[in-house]
UniProtKB/TrEMBL annotation, chain A:
Domain of life assignment: Bacteria
Protein name: Alpha/beta hydrolase
InterPro entries linked to this entry: AB_hydrolase_1 (IPR000073), AB_hydrolase_fold (IPR029058)
Family classification: Belongs to the AB hydrolase superfamily.
Lineage, uppermost ranks: Bacteria, Bacillati, Actinomycetota, Actinomycetes, Streptosporangiales
Span of domain AB hydrolase-1: 20-258
Annotated Gene3D superfamilies: alpha/beta hydrolase
Pfam families: Abhydrolase_6
Source organism of the structure: Nonomuraea montanisoli
UniProtKB/TrEMBL annotation, chain B:
Source species taxonomy: Bacteria, Bacillati, Actinomycetota, Actinomycetes, Streptosporangiales
Molecular function via GO: phosphatase activity
UniProt keyword Repeat, yes or no: no
Domain PAS: 3-55
CDD domains recorded: PAS (cd00130)
PANTHER family assigned to the protein according to its UniProt record, in alphabetical order: STAGE II SPORULATION PROTEIN E, STAGE II SPORULATION PROTEIN E-RELATED
Keywords assigned: Hydrolase
Top-rank taxon, per record: Bacteria
GO biological process, any: regulation of DNA-templated transcription
Name of the protein described by the UniProt record: SpoIIE family protein phosphatase
């Protein structure tokens, strides 16, 4: 199966433009960039995709081994870059994708020109002298929360959720479809996301980086954004007026402006 | 009726909690029902708290990673299951429906309906646990079936000088039930015995009969002179068991001939005839006999088959020829074609090739268990020193 189908890759904008890859975080899919990506289509080759296991990716390509660490997800990014033969890549990663971008750039530093890290956190769980914002218990609670919210998923729904744009009558059933996937995969992705510790990978990163930090972000608090900024040599930090964890949805203009100013 | 005060009352005392918040979750207004449900005071909420602040941490992450994006992407979210932290410190399981009001770019607010769902959520949790238990049991059953099944088939066939032997087995479907197929090869007074059989049905009861068949067949050659007499003793053992299962068996007494070939004395109890592959083609060998353990009158016979160097005999269970695609069977003709194409290969390749064809014919999911045993006399005699290379 082609990587482009596997990861539901969508390429738009200028075919000869510098590549700008947008990567979604844990929870939803490439729709997270719906309000931001179009603003770059006049100048860039814009690449959107879903990680395997999310959105309209090919769920059968999911392997618990490969995706047992963020490196597996970073490989998805690299696979797409290889398939589209992208170089001088500017990578915009939301949430956990920030760190996935760092891993991808560390693996192939020559391929990446810039990293935009939106709400990054190299480690969510508090550690000796490090405040990530969460305890291990909190993450267990999240997994329970996922369980109760994925009740509606069933194998019959799977093919529907996997993409039937030609059947709009299914829309009513798909109330929460943007953020839906196989519950088992969602659980595993949650574990990998929230139990990872990628602090050491920040030190290895030599790619130019921008840290976009929201106010009142419960998932990646300001202290964590500052930690990432300090750990990434030569990075820029922008404290946004936007609140919450998803400025790409809640404050697209501010997000676009910050990314443009950096690029 | 005064509409304005009527709607005000409807908002405040509706049979569900209402929250009106800013786009970022900051609470503007909570209705009386919500306050009563949660024990919070209006003055502690409006302008002071965000919805997220009232959630335990796990749900807060869920809110940020799922609920808020959904509202932004499609302006609504339904049946979101979270807990609210009550003023008393305990938790109230609820379901949330929400809509985002206002246009993107302009001022927006979120309207949230809050339904207490204590009983429903605890029931769901029970269901979830029950499902997890069921999945666990299913996994255990599959493992048990696998272990039991493995005991019906030797881990590997013995090495017999002058013979190339191979056996393969594949369970039906997902392999979560014990099937009745078995095969075995062991030394007897007069040489070697090769058996392949199939007990009707599946599951524990069939497994008991399969086990009975295997040890009866192993013990019988000490007392019974011929393959047909051995099958007859199995027949009586199954009848004594008072089971409604029956058994089909192909039993071959294998004697190595001094010139390099071998002689099979073959008896069939209701089992499909094995296929003899020679340079001239494929032919069925053995005389069909009665099922074992079912009929009152037994009709069994012994037939001798000479297998010369380069030739093979392929034993199989009915799962091969009765493999189904829609209403069509894999059938003997198709099997013969596959075997003739593979006849110059090793015993293992012949067995694998047939299994693959049967499996591919059924898109990889077998409708019945399949066991195949191939006995081949190599064209050039294979000595022990050559075999391990």
């Amino acid at each position: 199966m082609s990587v482009l189908v596997r990861n539901h890759v969508k390429v738009s904008g200028r075919p000869d433009g510098k590549p700008l890859v947008f990567a979604h975080g844990f929870g939803c899919d490439q729709n997270m960039w719906r309000l931001v990506a179009p603003a770059f289509e006049d100048a860039y080759k814009v690449v959107l995709f879903d990680y395997v296991g999310a959105g309209r990716s090919d769920l059968s390509a999911y392997s618990p081994e490969r995706y047992s660490s963020l490196h597996g997800y970073a490989q998805d990014v690299l696979d797409i870059c290889h398939e589209l033969d992208l170089t001088e890549v500017s990578f915009v990663g939301h949430s956990v994708s920030s760190l996935i971008g760092v891993l991808a750039a560390n693996a192939e530093p020559d391929r990446f020109a810039d990293l935009v890290l939106v709400g990054p956190s190299p480690r969510y769980i508090d550690d000796d002298g490090y405040v990530g914002g969460f305890s291990a218990q909190d993450i267990e609670e999240l997994l329970e929360s996922l369980d109760s919210n994925y009740l509606g998923w069933s194998s019959q729904m799977a093919p529907v959720i996997m993409g039937n744009p030609e059947r709009p009558e299914l829309g009513e059933e798909l109330a929460n479809s943007f953020c839906r996937t196989d519950p088992d995969i969602a659980q595993r992705f949650a574990r990998v996301t929230f139990l990872s510790d990628n602090r050491a990978d920040l030190d290895k990163c030599r790619t130019r980086a921008l840290v976009l930090q929201c106010a009142n972000d419960v998932i990646a608090p300001e202290a964590v954004g500052r930690y990432v900024h300090a750990a990434l040599p030569g990075s820029e930090l922008v404290l946004m007026r936007a609140t919450g964890h998803c400025p790409n949805l809640s404050a697209p203009e501010e997000t676009i402006a910050a990314i443009k100013a950096f690029l | 009726m005064d509409l304005t005060s009527g709607f005000e009352e409807l908002f405040e005392d509706a049979p569900c909690g209402f929250l009106v918040t800013d786009a970022d979750g900051a609470i503007r207004r909570a209705n009386r029902t919500f306050l009563a449900m949660t024990g919070h005071r209006a003055e502690d909420l409006a302008g002071r708290a965000r919805v997220q602040d009232l959630l335990p941490v796990g749900d807060r992450i869920f809110y940020e990673t799922h609920f808020a994006p959904l509202l932004a992407l499609q302006s609504s979210a339904r049946e979101i299951a979270v807990d609210f932290r009550r003023a008393a410190g305990d938790r109230l399981p609820v379901l949330l429906n929400a809509v985002m009001k206002g246009d993107p770019g302009g001022p927006r607010e979120i309207w949230i309906c809050v339904f207490a769902a204590t009983d429903r959520r605890s029931y769901e949790r029970e269901l979830l646990l029950a499902r997890q238990r069921a999945e666990h049991s299913e996994k255990e059953a599959r493992e048990l079936a696998g272990i039991l099944q493995a005991s019906f088939i030797p881990p590997s066939l013995p090495r017999v000088d002058g013979l190339d032997l191979a056996g393969v087995y594949r369970p039906a479907g997902l392999g979560d039930e014990v099937g009745g197929d078995f095969y075995d090869m062991y030394e007897t007074r007069d040489g070697w015995a090769l058996v392949i059989g199939d007990v009707s049905g599946k599951g524990a009861e069939a497994a008991v009969v399969t086990s009975l068949a295997r040890y009866t067949l192993r013990a019988a050659p000490a007392r019974e002179p011929t393959p047909s007499a051995i099958l007859a003793s199995l027949h009586h053992a199954v009848v004594r068991e008072r089971t409604d299962r029956f058994v089909t068996v192909a039993y071959a007494q294998v004697s190595l001939a001094p010139d390099g070939g071998c002689l099979l004395t073959l008896s069939l109890g209701g089992h499909p005839q094995p296929v003899h592959l020679t340079g001239a083609g494929a032919s069925q060998v053995g005389r069909p006999g009665t099922l074992l353990g079912m009929l009152r009158r037994l009709r069994l016979s012994d037939v001798t088959v000479e297998v010369r160097p380069g030739e093979s005999v392929v034993f199989f269970t009915d799962g091969v020829i009765e493999g189904r695609r829609d209403s069509e069977l894999f059938g003997e003709d198709r099997m013969e074609r596959v075997l003739l194409e593979a006849r110059d290969e090793s015993a293992a390749t012949i067995a694998d090739r047939l299994l693959q064809e049967v499996s591919a014919y059924q898109s990889g999911v077998l409708s019945d268990d399949v066991a195949i045993v191939v006995l081949k006399v190599p064209a050039a005699p294979v000595g022990p020193d050559q075999r391990d290379r």
